[in-house]
Write a structure and sequence with these properties.
Blueprint lengths: L16 H15 L5 H8 L10 H8 L7 H14 L24 H14 L54 H5 L13
Length: 193
């Protein structure tokens, strides 16, 4: 007989957003009669709008070892609700005679999604997703890029193969040096007249 899952103790899963999320999943797991993981797994693949969830993922969700994507969590919730003949979009705590009070009108799905978001948003820095590596610098080419020196037998005075002259402080100054050297960014804000 497979071992039944139990809610992790506070020493394993300390109080906080993750514990709140797992505790809410356990409410539905208990109400469904603590079904075996293979039974839940099979149901996630056969219900309307199926999203097959592996028994290992279900176990990890119920023990607080993963948060997973919402589609996976939602499939688990729908399977557990189906096992208890409950609508996941029904009010979480039904009132007698359907008299809704304004204190907590959330549905099972809305409440679990709120806890799921709280769990994700409160991740510790070491659990946050790694920053993707920086993209390599693109080689300058095409329109707007800096011209590269063209090798030639003799240097062209003030032309493509020449070394740029030092920048001039006065952009309106007369002279070939001010007109032949492009600014450091490759574009000039000055009009071409």
């Amino acid at each position: 007989m497979p071992r039944m899952l139990r809610m992790p103790g506070k020493d394993v899963l300390p109080p906080g957003p993750k514990r709140d999320f797992v505790a809410e999943l356990y409410v539905h797991y208990r109400e469904a009669g603590r079904p075996a993981l293979p039974q839940i797994e099979a149901l996630t693949g056969t219900m309307p709008n199926p999203h097959k969830v592996s028994r290992e993922t279900i176990r990890r969700l119920l023990t607080g070892q993963t948060t997973s994507q919402w589609a996976v969590v939602d499939a688990l919730l729908r399977a557990l609700c189906q096992m208890q003949d409950r609508d996941p979009d029904g009010r979480r705590w039904p009132e007698p005679d359907d008299q809704y009070e304004e204190d907590d009108p959330a549905t099972c799905r809305e409440y679990l999604r709120r806890l799921w978001n709280n769990d994700i948003d409160d991740l510790e820095p070491d659990e946050a997703p790694a920053t993707p590596p920086a993209a390599p610098a693109q080689a300058a080419s095409g329109w707007g890029s800096q011209p590269t020196a063209v090798p030639s037998a003799r240097p062209a005075p003030g032309g493509w193969g020449s070394t740029p002259s030092p920048p001039v402080d006065d952009p309106w100054a007369a002279g070939v040096a001010a007109q032949s050297s492009p600014p450091a960014g490759g574009y000039s804000d000055e009009p071409p007249f």
